[in-house]
Design a protein that fits this description.
The complex is a heterodimer of chains A (351) and B (329).
Chain A: E1 3-5, H1 6-20, E2 24-28, H2 44-48, E3 53-54, H3 60-71, E4 76-81, H4 91-98, H5 101-104, E5 114-119, H6 134-138, E6 144-146, H7 151-163, E7 168-173, E8 180-182, E9 196-199, E10 204-208, H8 211-225, E11 230-234, E12 237-239, H9 244-253, E13 256-263, H10 268-280, E14 289-293, H11 302-305, H12 312-322
Parallel strand pairs in A: 2-3, 2-4, 4-5, 5-7, 6-7, 10-11, 10-13, 13-14
Antiparallel strand pairs in A: 1-8, 6-12, 9-11
Helix pairs in contact in A: 1-7, 3-4, 8-12
Chain B: H1 12-33, H2 49-56, E1 64-67, H3 72-78, H4 82-89, E2 113-116, H5 123-136, E3 143-148, H6 155-166, E4 171-177, E5 180-181, E6 184-185, H7 195-203, E7 206-211, H8 215-232, E8 236-241, H9 258-266, H10 269-279, H11 285-308
Parallel strand pairs in B: 1-2, 1-3, 3-4, 4-8, 7-8
Antiparallel strand pairs in B: 5-6
The chains are: A alpha/beta (351), B alpha/beta (329).
């Protein structure tokens, strides 16, 4: 199996879905232009032409309505938001229309659209280019929300999302675009609603999604050196939420740490903790811990970014705390010159 | 513009019957509204019926229509089932949305009525999307988007005009201008009532403003426009001036100047057409009475059946949140 970046896996997923079904189109600001949405739409226009790989006016609100309308007459659109924030302009069409169309018209029609939303992070993205609002969408019945963390999952979940007869919010973390994994050629599917048990252990259950999964994997490696092993569950889909694997794991470990890319208050991490406390309270040996973004907008300066984003050390601390071990300040070793606002030292932007 | 209107043969008698039918349905809804059995917001279109009747006369069943919360006339004239509509108002499982919709979520895909929703302006882009889909599929279906003058204050309207124009979509933007948005007169929302059409013209879209009360004359003009949109593949905006006799929601009137109301009622579309057809001896009083009797019987049957129909059951609550293989009506 070739090892390719997540961004290319997205592109390959689009290519396979478009090849398999003539009604699939991709539309968005910058989709056919030189940058080709960070390489995630590279070359598609050469294969499928300008009728299926389309630029759009700066009209997010209407464009979601337009692809919704097209989906009612058998087109399968994928729309790209280069930042999730731009989807906020289209909340009426997403939340009031797309999510409810199948239900409010009693199942006659459905809205098979995919909304790719890219979440920015670091390198000065700031308050309006670095939010992950997946929690908002997961709250609305009728929307599916997937958050793949690996290139392999990204391709398989994208194909499943395009084939799904419902509206799917496909959340891509910008830093994940650079990560690589084994990705098979051709068409394959990861079912929506299937969490992935990345690592098994007995001491605690750690639940993560999207880029938080990368942090959790790093944390698990640190913990392992201390002789602590964890169940690490990558949710992959947050709506509809399949909690069976989490409940099974907590039954075994009795301890729960949840990591999320959203803010802490009313965030998705709260949903996981609530489910477990409601359904498996007696299995818990300790109060669960949530790791999420602080309740403040994203600062632009690299100096404050260093103290804004949770790091693997936060997860390590949380698991240690669950086991009654002593912790240290996770920011203790962070120096302003470390500049944690980029995925690696070689990265010089732009995003 | 090329006009074929002189050659378009409109059966005035049938057209009048359709107009009368919408009016009589509305009047029956008004009569029964206070019974508290139709428990959903109902937005009446009494006074504005002629526009839908005139436009749908030239549409094919396979053409698409979307509308707003004030959709009865659009739904009925496109061919939507009266019984399914009345059932829907009663919240019955036999309703066109199986009781999930009420008056603001009408649908009948069998006749190309693709849906209507109460968020003002929201169906404008959705209608453009139907036309976009038609363009991608290379068919010549026409999409009609019905909306009120208030919708033209939403940004989605302008984004949609631009996209339809840039992509040469077969869309008729049908603005029913009744001068009120909820209960605010257009002069409190716009510099003047010419503003809408002048802005649309600025986009470079063909724009027309017609009298919305004279059903027969309007039907001829709109037949020509439908024909033109279908053959040329370009969007068109049409503003028809009209008036509703009720307030925004429910059968009651809101506080409007008496002289304004009486002035418009003098040009009531049903009265206007009836007088003309009687004077021209196209119809006789007896024929009109016969129409009324037939329509009344149809309405009575629809109400009787709808009232006797079953409500949805408890397991129906969570049905259709998502579509999957097991979901079917």
């Amino acid at each position: 199996m070739p090892v390719i970046p997540y961004s290319q896996a997205i592109r390959d997923g689009l290519y396979e879905a478009m090849k398999a079904d003539d009604s699939v189109i991709v539309i968005g600001q910058g989709v056919p232009d030189a940058s080709q949405t960070y390489g995630t739409t590279s070359g598609l226009i050469d294969h499928f032409g300008a009728d299926r790989v389309l630029e759009m006016p700066i009209s997010e609100a209407s464009m979601v309505g337009i692809i919704l309308g097209a989906s009612l007459v058998s087109i399968r659109p994928v729309m790209v938001f280069a930042r999730m924030e731009f989807a906020v302009l289209a909340m009426d069409q997403i939340v009031n229309q797309a999510a409810k169309w199948h239900y409010m018209f009693a199942g006659g029609d459905s809205v098979p659209i995919v909304l790719r939303m890219i979440v920015g992070r670091g390198w000065g993205q700031g308050a309006q280019h670095a939010q992950s609002l997946h929690n908002w969408f997961a709250h609305v019945p009728g929307l599916k929300v997937v958050m793949p963390s690996t290139a392999y999952d990204a391709k398989g979940l994208l194909i499943s999302s395009i084939e799904d007869p419902n509206p799917v919010i496909f959340v891509e973390h910008r830093w994940l675009h650079y990560t690589t994994s084994n990705v098979p050629d051709g068409l394959y599917r990861i079912p929506i609603g299937s969490p992935n048990l990345i690592r098994t252990g007995k001491h605690a259950t750690v639940v993560a999604s999207s880029y938080s999964t990368i942090d959790a994997i790093k944390a698990s490696e640190i913990l392992l050196k201390e002789g602590i092993d964890i169940d690490l569950i990558d949710l992959r889909t947050i709506a509809p939420l399949n909690d069976a694997m989490i409940l099974e794991s907590v039954k075994k470990t009795g301890r729960l740490v949840v990591c999320d890319q959203g803010h802490l208050t009313s965030g998705f991490s709260a949903e996981i903790v609530a489910r477990v406390t409601e359904k498996a309270f007696k299995d818990l040996k300790e109060a669960p811990i949530r790791i999420a973004l602080p309740d403040c907008p994203t600062p632009t300066t690299r100096a404050l970014s260093n103290y804004f984003y949770p790091m693997p050390e936060h997860i390590v601390n949380a698991v240690r705390q669950q086991l009654g071990l002593k912790n240290q300040d996770p920011f203790l070793n962070v120096k302003p010159k470390d500049y944690l606002d980029s995925p690696n030292k070689e990265f010089v932007g732009p995003f | 513009m090329r006009t074929k209107s002189d050659f378009i043969n409109i059966d005035k008698s049938k057209l009048f019957r359709k107009l009368l039918r919408v009016r009589m349905v509305e009047e029956e809804l008004v009569r029964r509204h206070s019974e508290q059995e139709m428990r959903c917001p109902i937005h009446f279109c009494i006074g504005r019926e002629a526009i839908a009747v005139a436009l749908c006369e030239s549409l094919k069943i396979s053409d698409y229509t979307v509308s707003t919360h004030r959709a009865h006339a659009h739904y009925l004239t496109k061919g939507g089932s009266l019984y399914a509509m009345i059932s829907e108002f009663y919240g019955k499982s036999t309703g066109c949305a199986a009781g999930r919709g009420g008056s603001m979520h009408l649908i009948d895909r069998n006749v190309g009525f693709v849906g209507c929703v109460p968020i003002v302006g929201s169906t404008i882009p959705i209608g453009v999307g139907l036309a976009f889909g038609s363009m991608l599929q290379k068919n010549d279906k026409v999409t009609v988007i019905f909306f009120g003058d208030g919708s033209t204050e939403e940004g989605a309207f302008y984004e949609s005009l631009n996209f339809a124009l840039m992509n040469n979509l077969r869309v008729i933007f049908m603005c029913e201008n009744d001068f009120y948005a909820v209960s605010t007169h257009i002069t409190k929302r716009r510099r003047n009532d010419e503003a809408i059409i002048r802005i649309v013209e600025g986009f470079g879209i063909g724009a027309y403003r017609f009298d919305g009360q004279d059903c027969n004359s309007l039907a001829k003009k709109l037949a020509s426009i439908v024909d033109d949109v279908r053959s040329n593949g370009k969007p068109v905006f049409v503003q028809c001036d009209t008036y509703r006799y009720t307030g925004n929601c429910g059968p009651e009137s809101d506080s409007r100047p008496d002289d304004e109301v009486s002035r418009w009622k003098e040009r009531d579309p049903v009265k206007l057409m009836q007088e003309k057809l009687l004077n021209a001896k196209v119809l006789s009083t007896d024929q009109i009475e016969q129409f009324k009797a037939e329509i009344a019987a149809e309405i009575q049957e629809a109400f009787d059946k709808a009232q006797a129909a079953p409500f949805p059951l408890r397991p129906d609550l969570n049905k259709f949140v998502f579509k999957d293989a097991s979901n079917s009506l």
